[in-house]
Specification:
Structural class: mainly alpha
Low-confidence stretches: none
Number of domains: 1
Strand content: under 5%
Helix content: over 70%
Distance between the termini: 66 Å
Strand order of the largest sheet: 1-2
Oligomer: single chain
Mean pLDDT: 83
Largest sheet: 2 strands, antiparallel
Radius of gyration: 21 Å
């Protein structure tokens, strides 16, 4: 093996670690929220691995053709967990919620592909200003950190705080934080992966290893695992709205890639990227997998490794797909304790907060213009704290939209940014 081949193999293994660290916790946390059985949970992990690897390969060869991870989106993840929490507290059955979300994803995927072909990215680029993106990222950070924090202390299902589990989770979170901030080279680059492994081992020592449920091929290929397909207009409409918001990830990621790669991303690359994202989003519905978007965090990974060739990315994605096709591996990875995954991601997703602040870097606020950020952000946070019973008198669609602080905040930000000329007051 030549030195060039060795570099490709090692870099491909790095990509494999990056894909694993950013994927494995998501199907576990969502599956746990839907109360899936051990085998069904293992099957969902397998499907997430396969579809994530396939999505990356599709983007590499038929989409934008750049070495950017096409992964399960944080916006989708937070929204789905929020839907589950809000609607189940309103006494809506979990299978109905899951089935309606799945149908909504099929509709959303088709719409995204069509919009991509029509060149909608130009319009979205105008209305989703940096201020709107800041509100989105800040609210998403708060929403996800709340979910992770509860999971760290064993309260994901509304249970009582578990001090023993919480102490272990906090210790793992501190380890990841120290490695991320003070670590050098590989220690910092793979702090998430190191935290997952260490947390997994410590959990097994303290609480005992989780039983391995090797999924059957039937479980790996199970359709509508979250619930049978249901047409529920309020949920489908809310899912479609989230999908339109989520596609701004594509614009942000491809913009960031231009600076790194040193050349502009062509209009055709944007279109093809939207089509691929729409396709895998439509597939995510019946496969009961959190939908996709290009990961902006891939840019940080590429900057750190300084290997921007496509070959290692393709190798890592192919290996990741292969890992999902092996039932024993899927069953093993499904034993990762959700609390340890939450502890690691609680630290990792703090970076979203920084991205939100960077989006408004250079903006000067005064007593008038502060409303641009404060109003949608504070109203969104207030809505997140409302009990679901407070909205029971509203129609179904309104309950889903107005009961979700993330959606309310984003909609307010869109209205404020596109209906008020803030520039006339920026110097007052």
């Amino acid at each position: 093996m030549t030195r060039a081949h060795s570099v490709v193999v090692l870099a491909g293994l790095q990509w494999l670690g990056f894909l694993f660290a950013n994927t494995v916790v998501i199907p576990l946390s969502v599956g746990a929220a839907f109360h899936l059985s051990g085998e069904a949970l293992a099957g969902s992990v397998a499907r997430a691995f396969i579809l994530t690897g396939a999505a990356c390969l599709l983007q590499a060869f038929a989409g934008h053709r750049l070495p950017l991870m096409e992964g399960q989106s944080g916006i989708w993840w937070g929204a789905i967990l929020s839907f589950i929490a809000t609607l189940t507290e309103s006494h809506v059955a979990l299978p109905l919620v899951g089935g309606a979300i799945a149908v909504g994803l099929v509709v959303t995927g088709i719409v995204i592909s069509v919009l991509g072909l029509l060149g909608v990215h130009r319009f979205l680029n105008r209305i989703f200003s940096p201020m709107v993106m800041a509100v989105l990222l800040l609210l998403l950070t708060v929403q996800l950190i709340d979910v992770f924090f509860r999971g760290m202390f064993g309260m994901a299902g509304g249970g009582v705080l578990d001090l023993k589990l919480g102490a272990l989770s906090v210790a793992v979170a501190i380890l990841v934080g120290v490695l991320t901030v003070a670590g050098r080279g590989g220690l910092s680059n793979f702090s998430i992966l190191i935290g997952l492994v260490v947390g997994w081992l410590l959990y097994a020592l303290v609480f005992g290893a989780e039983p391995v449920h090797t999924p059957s091929f039937a479980a790996m290929g199970q359709m509508f695992a979250w619930g049978p397909a249901r047409w529920q207009p309020s949920i489908v409409g809310a899912v479609l709205l989230i999908g339109l918001i989520n596609i701004t990830n594509t614009i942000a990621s491809l913009r960031a890639a231009e600076a790194l790669l040193g050349h502009p991303v062509a209009d055709a690359q944007y279109r093809r990227s939207f089509v691929v994202t729409g396709l895998v989003t439509a597939l995510a519905g019946p496969l009961s997998v959190v939908p996709y978007a290009p990961y902006t965090s891939s840019i940080g990974f590429l900057r750190t490794t300084r290997i921007v060739d496509r070959a290692p990315f393709v190798l890592g994605a192919a290996l990741f797909t292969a890992a999902g096709l092996v039932p024993a591996l899927a069953g093993f990875f499904a034993t990762l304790p959700v609390a340890m995954g939450d502890a690691v991601l609680c630290i990792a997703y703090l970076q979203l907060f920084g991205s939100g602040l960077q989006a408004i870097e250079g903006v000067t606020f005064n007593f008038r213009t502060i409303f641009r950020l404060a109003l949608p952000l504070c109203i969104g946070l207030a809505v997140q704290d409302l009990p679901p019973s407070a909205l029971m008198s509203l129609p179904g669609f309104a309950q889903v939209i107005l009961g979700n602080g993330l959606l309310v905040g984003i909609l307010l930000a869109l209205i404020l940014e596109n209906s008020v000329r803030w520039s006339q007051w920026e110097t007052d």
